[in-house]
Amino acid sequence: MAAPKKSRGPAGGQGRPGRSLALILIAMVALTGGMFLADQPTPRLGIDLAGGTSITLEAKSEPGQESAINKTNMDTAVQIMERRVNGLGVSEAEVQTQGDRNIIVNIPKGTNSAQAREQVGTTAKLYFRPVLTVAQGTPTPTPSASTSGKPDPSTSPTAPKAENGKGSASPDPSATTQGRAVTGGLKADSTPDPKASTTPKGDASPSASTADQAATAALQKKFEALDCSSAASRAKATQGTKPTEPVVACGSKEDGWPKYILGPAEVSGTDVDNAKAALDQNGQWIVQMEFTKSGAKQFQKITGRLAAQQQPQNQFAIALDGEVVSAPSVRTALSANAEISGSFTQQSAEDLANVLSYGALPLSFKEQSVTTVTAALGGEQLRAGLIAGAIGLALVVIYLVAYYRGLAFIALLSLLVSGILTYTLMSLLGPAIGFALNLPAVCGAIVAIGITADSFIVYFERIRDEIREGRTLRPAVERAWPRARRTILVSDFVSFLAAAVLFVVTVGKVQGFAFTLGLTTLLDVVVVFFFTKPVMTIMARKKFFASGHPWSGLDPKRLGAKPPLRRSRRATAPTSDPKEA
């Protein structure tokens, strides 16, 4: 007969515990080094611990659109605000509704908190409108014939003007009216559409009704009285207007506060598929826009029509929240892409691209209150929580030492490793995914102490059960591991599932508790498999534990162990033969 093969020793962490310990040691060193290389030696703190700004926004309805303030639009506004803030990398910002008309935005202190405050309530309603008239932004004098060569301000708003965005004559019909311009990303036929009307929308035809003429006269009067240097006047310029109506609007301060009469909107911000900040060939910051399929067709149509017009009616204005951010001249029909270029900094280009990418808010909002939150109260609560956690940890240590004695040393080392991994990961997750430590997250970390200690207790009790059966320590450690492993995995799976469900169904700070609980549960599995079990295997070879020292926690006498199994077989072997009985 062939000789039986020798059984190989347990693989992995059972047969070679040094490998597992080396892996977890390398992981701890790498995480710690990464924490310092990322210049993030401490976890990011939430608004309740670090302080920050709390903004209350109140929804306001346009005339005749009071029903627009409803739960659907409010929830949509919350989602868009969250995407905008997250797009800036602001950690742990909270956006939630309060009542029927208010939205509360909590922004922790951070590098981008100021930009987040500026963008969070920006409606970002974008429209592309044809320019009908442009003039300097101060109120126009009493209508009279101009002797200085400037156009008569009493003329129809659809009459062509030879003024640029700052009110000076521009002989070049292709020159832009502001410091910004828009160009196309795709080449297109420069021949205008023969079917397209060369008369801009909003012209008062000879057969126009009296109501239309009155509306045109009212719009002209509003245009003449508009003072773009006044914030109040700018705010009222487009108030109560609809996208399908001509409007008056103001340009920016950098462009000299020009004022415009704009035709009905031809393309809206919903037709923009994507927007991003980029550098052009001259190293200037621009905003690149990509239109949807339907938006590209409409954009090509309007630019093809405007290309055949004279200055300034060959211009179209890009109006964002009622302010003209750019009013370029059109030389040829453009297609799917466009660029907004000009007096942009990197920050302003990224801000504009951010609000365009995530869409316009369905409602307009005004700041009702802005409150600065100090970290004093949160600091007191944190100290109270840390004291409670220290007391709980001390009680766990006392229990382990009193009941498990020498095994408590292995448990405390495992808790220390778990604490190092948790701290380094929390610090690295701050810049990586925007994780911020708040009070509920601290509570989750404290609860995790009990979960981690419970895994050690399960393994230790399985080892003790094997010793009670009469086995020596080294076989007991290996035989106890499969049974303890199953129990630990099932227990941690239940805890992780509960944390995942809590994270999905809750909002705000409760998610911090759920995230921390889930993270520490996963780390518990890593620590038990790659540290506790290998250390226990090594300690089983030491005389202090292998001999069953009274302070080892594995004394067979104290555990009520049976006689060794091998001796029991030898004692009963002679009596098993019936002939000798």
Descriptive report:
The protein is α+β, with helices and mostly antiparallel strands. It contains 16 helices and 14 strands. The protein has helices spanning 17-37, 47-50, 71-87, 113-120, 210-225, 231-237, 293-306, 346-357, 376-404, 407-433, 439-468, 473-505, 510-539, 543-546, 556-559, 565-572, and strands spanning 52-60, 94-98, 102-108, 126-135, 181-184, 247-250, 259-262, 267-268, 272-279, 285-291, 316-320, 323-326, 337-341, 364-373. The strands form three sheets. Strands 4, 6, 7, 8, 11 and 12 form a six-stranded antiparallel β-sheet that branches. A four-stranded antiparallel β-sheet has the order 2-3-1-14. The longest helix is centred in the C-terminal third of the chain and has 33 residues, at 473-505.
Descriptive labels:
alpha+beta, six-stranded antiparallel sheet, four-stranded antiparallel sheet, 14 strands, disordered N terminus, disordered C terminus
Helix count from the secondary structure assignment: 16
What fraction strand? 5-15%
Estimate the global geometry from the Cα principal axes. elongated
Radius of gyration: 37 Å
Helix content: 40-55%
Weakly predicted, low-confidence segments: 1-13, 142-208, 567-573, 575-581
- How many strands, what sense, and barrel or not for the largest sheet? 6 strands, antiparallel
Task: Tell me the span between the first and last alpha carbons.
Answer: 33 Å
Structure class: alpha+beta
Average pLDDT, all residues: 75
Number of strands: 14
Give the topology string: H per helix, E per strand.
HHEHEEHEEHHEEEEEHEEEHEHHHHHHHH
